[in-house]
Amino acid sequence: MSGPAEKCSITMPQDIAETAYARSAPSGLSAYATRQIERNNLNELISVAEAEHGLISEEETQAKREHLLHAREQQMGA
pLDDT tens, 39-58? Predict the structure, then answer.
């Protein structure tokens, strides 16, 4: 994901908020939410690819993980 950051406010049940804060430590809730959305997007892409082309092998999955990690590192360094 790229582009400017946008500050937002959300409301959720207290037990969910406590779990979210616990899972997001120490990087913070914003980073946690961003990573989770990236994971959801990737899972959707994988589902579409598997529906069109069959199951993706572990080797192909690992290669994509490495590609995404490299792309994220380049974004952070830019």
Answer: 999 899 989 988 999 988 89
CB atoms inside a 10 Å sphere around CB 20: 16
Distance, CA of 11 to chain centre: 21
pTM, to two decimals: 0.60
Q: How many angstroms separate the Cα of 6 from the Cα of each of 3, 9, 30, 34, 40?
A: 9, 10, 10, 12, 20
- Three-state SS annotation for the chain: CCCCCCCCCCCCCHHHHHHHHHHHCCCCHHHHHHHHHHHHHHHHHHHHHHHHHCCCCHHHHHHHHHHHHHHHHHHHHC
Tokens of 62: 């690992």
pLDDT in tens, 66-76: 999 999 999 88
